[in-house]
Structures are given as structure tokens and as C-alpha cells.
Write a structure and sequence with these properties.
The protein is mainly beta. Helix content is 12%, strand content 48%. A hairpin with a 2-residue loop joins strand 4 and strand 5.
Length: 303
């Protein structure tokens, strides 16, 4: 059951989805059956054996680790009335299903920007994925299946994740899932990062306004308007709190004013944006104590 739960997460389908697709289910189950009888001693040389699907599985014994298609065989040579079974620690996927699953990969990371929430426990589709994320911290990138993602946030281990958000994560995308707001008005925002290559000599910079009750802000670079009238997520209709620009690679002095005025909210300081880089600037904190966070948003390494 645990192995299938992990496989379903990887495939991005539910148990009900799989039960409603008897062809896929039969293909997966048949891929686990090899005609004939093979004991451990018959498999140590690393044969490739044909399954009921007509595709082969590859056995291997290296440095004491016994595997099939790279999945650990934890309890070999179990006898049944109709053959021999070997307990494995994962589900094997036929090539076409594996290829579809591999193509449907996305990456998410979680950024905690709720100033009074404390360390956050982050859940994805009901599973704890990141523990103890402190305020202002971004997690590492996590690979998931593309599709609908339900994120929940709890204030401590074992606590109920009452603050939830639902968004769609497309295959091939990199999405920052950001926790904003405070108290009973926590919100979860899905920010799609753009990793297409900027033009030569330019960097890509996104800005998020995450301070509740601050109002709209103007973000200035070297005293010039960079992004104007950026509101808290959902507060200005179609303005969802985030905007992106490509800029010449350089060092910029970033300041934030109340929108449409010269009233300074925060003097952020100097930030260097390298050519080809991707950056996320967050206007964070709380009214009267606004802070700028800057994240270099390098994607997860290719596997």
C-alpha cells in the first residue's frame, strides 16, 4: 500500500483514478509478473527477464544490494502456491507509463512570508513535505507530478493544517508556493517562475508585495520607477501581487514607496542581478516594519 501510494503521487493520479483505468492498472500489475520460477540464486547474475507485458525487468546484485529496475528487493524467495514472489520496496512502471510520468514533472518550493505565524509545517496533498520553515526562508526545490496541488500550512508538528490553498502546477514549470498574510487571514499564492533565457546581458526580476494592509507600492531601481502600484495579492482585482521585468545586468539600489507618492516605505539597499539570472524580490514584514527579501531563484539541477 505504501509503495502504491508513493507511485500514485509520482504519477499524479489518485487511487480512484487508477481504479477507473483498468487498462493502466492491468499493465502495471502485469509488469510485476514473470512467467517461470526464479529463486534468488537464479537472479544474482543480473538477468533481464520478460514480464507478462512483454517488456523486461533488469535484476542486479551489487555490493550486497539486490534490485530490480533499481528498486530494492527487500525480502526474496517467498513461496506461494503458484510460484515464488520477491518483496520489493516500490512499484515498477512499464516504459510508456514511466515516460508519461517523467514528462509530467514539475518543481515547487515553499517560501514562508507570514511574519507572525512561526515556523511552518508545509503539506502537499496531505503529506508533510517541509518541516520547520522559518519566516523569510525558501525551501529547496521539490519535484512533483504536474496537476492540481493542494497545499496546507500548520504552525507546529502534528497540528492541523487549517490554512490551505489550491493551485495548478503545469508540467515543466517551476512554481514558488508562498505563504502570506497573518493570523486568521493566511493566504497561499502560487507564483510561476519564468526560466526561459533572458536576452543577452539581462536578468529576470520578479517582485512580490506580501505585506497585508500595506496598500499598493511602487518599487524603484536607482530612483526610477521599476514596478508601479503593486498590491497585496487579491486586493486590486487582476493585480495578484507579483510582477516580472527583465533588466540589464547590473547593481541596483532598490527602494519601495507608497504607490503614487514619494513616501518612503523601505530603503532596501544595493542588489546585484547577474546576466542570465532569475531573482525574486519580496516586499515582506508588516506595516511599519517592512523588509526586503531577495531570493536567487535558480531552478533545480537537471537529473
Amino acid at each position: 500500500n505504501d509503495a502504491f501510494a508513493a507511485a500514485l503521487d509520482y504519477l499524479g493520479v489518485s487511487a480512484d483514478d487508477l481504479m477507473e483505468d483498468p487498462e493502466m492498472l492491468a499493465q502495471i500489475l502485469s509488469y510485476h509478473v514473470i512467467p517461470g520460477q526464479y529463486f534468488f540464486r537464479n537472479l544474482t547474475a543480473g538477468p533481464a527477464l520478460e514480464t507478462l507485458t512483454g517488456e523486461t525487468v533488469q535484476f542486479d546484485l551489487t555490493d550486497g544490494l539486490f534490485t530490480v529496475n533499481g528498486v530494492r528487493i527487500s525480502d526474496p524467495d517467498q513461496l506461494a502456491s503458484n510460484g515464488i514472489f520477491h518483496v520489493i520496496d516500490g512499484v515498477l512502471l512499464p516504459a510508456d507509463i514511466q515516460a508519461a510520468a517523467d514528462a509530467n514533472r514539475a518543481h515547487v518550493r515553499f517560501i514562508h512570508l507570514s511574519p507572525d505565524f512561526g515556523a511552518a509545517e508545509i503539506y502537499a496533498d496531505g503529506v508533510l513535505v517541509v518541516e520547520g520553515v522559518e519566516y523569510g526562508v525558501a525551501s529547496e526545490w521539490i519535484e512533483i507530478a504536474g496537476g492540481v496541488l493542494r497545499v496546507g500550512v500548520a504552525p507546529e508538528p502534528g497540528a492541523r493544517a487549517n490554512n490551505t490553498g489550491i493551485g495548478r502546477v503545469e508540467a515543466g514549470s517551476y512554481v514558488s508556493v508562498v505563504v502570506v498574510g497573518s493570523g486568521s487571514s493566511i493566504r497561499i499564492r502560487y507564483i510561476v517562475e519564468d526560466y526561459t533565457t533572458p536576452a543577452e546581458g539581462r536578468a529576470r526580476v520578479s517582485v512580490l508585495q506580501s505585506v497585508q494592509n500595506l496598500g499598493a507600492v511602487d518599487v524603484l531601481a536607482n530612483g526610477e520607477l521599476f514596478i508601479g502600484a503593486l498590491g497585496y495579492p487579491g486586493s486590486l482585482g487582476d493585480n495578484d501581487g507579483v510582477d516580472t521585468r527583465d533588466v540589464p545586468a547590473a547593481t541596483y539600489n532598490i527602494t519601495v514607496n507608497q504607490a503614487g507618492t514619494t513616501n518612503l516605505i523601505v530603503e532596501g539597499g544595493n542588489f546585484t542581478f547577474d546576466a542570465g539570472g532569475n531573482y525574486l524580490i519580496v516586499v515582506g514584514g508588516a506595516p511599519g516594519n517592512v523588509i526586503l527579501f531577495v531570493y536567487s531563484t535558480e531552478p533545480a539541477p537537471a537529473e
